[in-house]
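Provenance

Sequences were taken from public entries as deposited. Structures were produced by running a predictor on each sequence independently, with no templates supplied. The record for DHA2 family efflux MFS transporter permease subunit from Prauserella oleivorans is shown for reference.
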Amino acid sequence: MDRSRLLALIVLCAGAFMAIVDETIVAVSLPAIQRDLGFTQSGLAWVTTSYLIAFGGLLLLFGRLGDILGRKRVFLAGLMVFTASSALCSLAWSAPVLLVARFVQGAGAAALTAVVLGMIATLFPEPGERAKAIGAFSFVQASGGTIGSLSGGLITQAASWHWIFAVNVPIGVAALGLATRLLPPELGTRAARTDVPGAVLVTAALMTLVYTITNIERYGWASAHTGGFGAVALALLAGFVVRQARARTPLLPLRLFRSRMLSGANVVLFLLVASMFGFMFTTVLYLRQVVGLSPQATGIAMVPPAAAIAVVSLGLSAKLNTRFGERRVLLVGLTLLASGLGLLGRVPVHAVYQVDVLPGLLVLGVGAGMAMPALMAQGMSDATPRDAGLASGLFNTTQQVGGALGLGVLAVLSATRTESLRAAGAEPAVALLGGYHAVYLTGMGVVVVALLVASATLRLPNLARSAK
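Predicted structure for DHA2 family efflux MFS transporter permease subunit:
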């Protein structure tokens, strides 16, 4: 891998890393933000939700715009918007200003993230180099949320909540300058026209869906709010599918789903991310509320799985994929993920971190570090140059929606189980742990389903390529 393409990869991953980190970096700072800007308790959730709605809702649109206008242009535009809105977030003087800035920040994150995987596929056509590059991107995707929670706590403690946004500005400016020079120009592969009605339908559908999912814990599954907005989201999605079947230049050509690899990989990714988001959320709460660790100690306790993901995805995944084939590596990685969740499903109330928690976290980290690069490589293997941006946007959309749904469903499951145990007379710590056990074991079941889907849909390794 030559120096210029290595630097280009670093720039692409830095942009995607900032976008993923900012999903969770605000979590620890929410009490301070509420105190300074006067948020109500219900309004405070929108500091996260406004970002997720724009991020998840616009990925598919920006992925297609990257194919039409050129992926470099869309990446640079997204990076500029993300950096400028981060500056506004850091200077926010009122609650409405912060919410608007966070929504715009999410839109910038969607633009720059949607095209990254497609640009990597174009920059690194040789299988060995592409495997290493996708491994780096997979590390960003798999560990960004954990690192965001850790860094948010440290920055807030050392300075103030304003700096969790301000830190993006110098990084964004530097990345913008480097990207302008290092990323190769990409002309759009199609005439500059797109399916505007389809774009409106899918963007509205995804935004409504993400909004509905992120509010499930607040309103409940059986509420009129969840049912009503969920029905609207499904109706919009149905309208989008009908539109794509009839449009002359569809935003998302349905022919893409004839690819067994692309379709299967997206289903597996959806299930994998749903279980992983639930794991991160639950483990932090378990360490804080049951084990009794401080916020700083909890952040440190979450470093080992991120480190394991880094070691495997950055250092070993490319060699493993080349030697054994992505499918085999993916199946082993999913097996390890399920095993790690199973180990965590047995943690006790009075846990010793090194004995009871750490082994499960390390197994999870190794499994994620193996599974994510192999899965993305398989999913992008059938994408043509003209559709690489769209396939990249589809992958990122699947990840965002899967993460939101997984977190929403598993949070409700945990709360329901905990309330049931409390009603039966269980002590508070025991009741909380019962809810967390339910999340871990359900997540394990979801990963097992992902393993079965991967076995049935993803192809055997290309032995000729693996031998290179």
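The CA atoms of residues 368 and 433 lie 24 Å apart.
The radius of gyration is 21 Å.
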